[in-house]
Write a structure and sequence with these properties.
Blueprint (H helix, E strand, L loop, with lengths): L5 H16 L1 E4 L4 E4 L4 E3 L1 E4 L9 E4 L7 E6 L2 E2 L12 E3 L11 E3 L8 E7 L4 E10 L2 E3 L5 E4 L4 E3 L2 E3 L8 E6 L2 E7 L2 E2 L12 E3 L11 E3 L8 E6 L9 E9 L1 H14 L1
Parallel strand pairs: 2-11, 13-22
Antiparallel strand pairs: 1-4, 3-9, 5-6, 5-10, 6-7, 8-9, 10-11, 12-15, 14-20, 16-17, 16-21, 17-18, 19-20, 21-22
Length: about 260
């Protein structure tokens, strides 16, 4: 007795109709990121249909080879991937069944800027999205910081545009000697110059906004000089900022107070 194939054909037909009706939609707005960040290029099918068994291709037509990430037969096809993206891309395999074909790029570079194409060849669907990657520079201070002996000083240094540096190393130096080192949100002071022992700190909670300023307590005249704040592995042309610290003796402040008294 032959089994009826009618219901199966109907299901296949419905699936094909759903695939034809579904549209591949990527963000119409450019995706912007700073060099060193991870970024997601959003792209999905609407209405959602499963593409777990389909080939998903992400390409950049201006490159050779153009393939950025290809997912086929349930796995990543690395053979034709452009070398500059090696180990830096992924799709969300568990979400392919809901039509999510977005791609994530890890630690983007300025050279990643460009227009990306997302394609489902067997469904004859394609869409594009623009990625813009900018740089964040380390900014010091054009004006010297002036304090009196015994006071606390904050040497301003920050990244512009703001960039989260919590996973990077931040180095403060004066005359080539380490003043303070922060790495992955922790202080590493083994190499710190003895003159600064127990007197330096950074604002760890503000590093998410690119603030890498240094606080120096109980300032002495020996602290005066030119300081540098440096983020060695920052993806930028400007990784170092400069700040001059001027330290005035206590007498200068007292003279100012006496002058004020006389004028009263």
């Amino acid at each position: 007795m032959k089994r009826s194939t009618g219901p199966i054909l109907i299901i296949i037909s419905l699936l094909m109709d759903a695939a034809l009706d579904s549209q591949l939609i990527c963000s119409h707005q450019p995706i912007t990121a700073l060099a060193g960040e991870d970024v997601i290029l959003p792209c999905h099918l609407e209405p959602p249909i499963s593409v777990s068994d389909e080939t998903v291709e992400w390409t950049r037509p201006d490159l050779d080879p153009k393939y950025i990430h290809v997912h086929r037969d349930g796995r990543f096809m690395f053979e034709n991937q452009n070398p500059s993206y090696n180990f830096r891309t992924r799709v969300f395999v568990d979400e392919l069944m809901t039509g999510n074909v977005s791609m994530k790029i890890f630690k983007v570079k300025v050279s990643d800027t460009g227009r990306y194409q997302c394609a489902l060849p067997s469904l004859q669907k394609e869409a594009s999205i623009q990625l813009i990657v900018g740089e964040s520079d380390v900014i010091g201070s054009d004006k010297p910081v002036t304090v009196t002996v015994g006071d606390n000083a904050i040497l301003p240094c920050y990244l512009e545009p703001p960039f989260d540096v919590r996973t990077l190393t931040v180095e403060w130096k004066r005359d080539g000697r380490f003043v303070h080192i922060s790495r992955h949100g922790k202080d590493y002071l083994d190499l710190q110059d003895e003159n600064f022992r127990g007197r330096t700190s950074v604002f760890h909670e503000e590093m998410i906004r690119g603030n890498i300023s240094l606080k120096l307590t109980n300032v002495t005249e020996l602290d005066a000089g030119s300081y540098t704040c440096n983020v060695p592995k920052l993806e930028s042309q400007v990784r170092r900022g400069f700040i001059n610290l001027t330290v005035e003796p206590v007498e200068n402040r007292n003279k100012g107070d006496q002058t004020d008294d006389i004028s009263k």
